[in-house]
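Let's sit down with a protein and look at its sequence and fold side by side. Please make up or recall a protein chain and show it to me in full. Label the sequence line and the structure token line clearly, so we can match residues to local backbone shapes. Go ahead whenever you are ready, and we will take it from there.
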Amino acid sequence: MSILEKLAVNTDTDLALWLQIKQQLTWLIASGQIQPGEKLPSVRQLADHLGINLHTVRAAYQKLEAESLVTTRHGSGTVVLEFDPTRVAQQAPSVRTHTVGVLVPRLSNPFFPAFLQGVEDVARQNHTLLFICNTDDDPLTGRVYLDQLIAKKADGLIVAPCGLTFDQQKNLTSLNLADSPIPIVYVPPRFLPLEMYWRWVLCKPLRKGSCAFQKMLH
């Protein structure tokens, strides 16, 4: 399916048309459906396809460029850049979405059902919707999920990359606690040695889940 076929606008909603286009393209880029180096349709092509004004499409492309999602060169068109989650998160509006992403390495791990129940209990008390993502112990899958959650403007992230080495955890996300404009709680702590990790797993996962969410709130 071409990029044009993946895009549509709804003229019956109050959401500005340029914002509809921008949000759809941001999601397509974050989810890997449009790869770095690919060219977006020209402003005229997209405007004709959607039946809207050229200036509306141009405004959407300019917003994408402001967030470093694309670059436009005269004569070369608009080209997609590598997704930069930090930059996108920094550009996010300050309005809360009341959503939190939770990344776990494997849902079949007996530790995590109770852990997620603890997270969900506190989330419910705070009227927050959870996005629970199973990475299957794959750093690349984790990275894609993180990009998607940031593209969806999640208020915070709880990341449990257990079973991965420190280098794999660094590859999981380009965000870190010091630079991230949104709260990120790593569970267990990224520097926990393997033998200590197993002790951590055996202690009260329900309480650990509750603590993780409360830590992110503060």
Remarks:
- The first helix runs from residue 17 to 30.
- The two ends are 43 Å apart (CA to CA).
